[in-house]
Design goal:
six-stranded mixed sheet; Nucleotidyltransferase, domain 5; 4 helices; globular
Length: 122
């Protein structure tokens, strides 16, 4: 399974709509098989979505995201786990361990969105 995390200075990028870097990880059964970083220079949501699809990303982990952009990604078959914050290495480990829904990874001020994020995992 390929996952992507929006990255800014070693942390999850606070706003996905304007994020310019993605860390893409190929997660095998025994852990991480490979990783690479890409620069997103596409100017529209639909073009960014197409690029993410071409990369083979199945799950996107990000900070804040507009409903419009999230809808485009979801319609394209990409699972979105929004409102995440923290160091990328810790977030990837929490995803791998199934503990990403813990409040410590929830962006400040987004307590009401925890339920939405947990539903996105299902």
């Amino acid at each position: 399974m390929k996952i992507a995390v929006s990255v800014w200075e070693g942390r999850v990028s606070p706003v996905f709509d304007t994020a310019s870097r993605l860390l893409v990880l190929d997660m095998g059964e025994t852990g991480e098989a490979s990783r690479f970083e890409v620069f997103l220079d596409e100017q529209t949501c639909s073009r960014k979505c197409s690029r993410i699809q071409v990369l083979g990303v199945e799950t996107l982990i990000c900070g804040a995201i507009s409903r419009y952009f999230e809808g485009i990604l979801t319609a394209a078959g990409i699972r979105v786990i929004p409102w995440v914050c923290g160091a990328v290495s810790e977030v990837v480990g929490a995803f791998r361990d199934g503990t990403l829904s813990q409040p410590m990874y929830l962006m400040p001020g987004c307590q009401g969105r925890l339920r939405d994020r947990e539903q996105a995992r299902d």
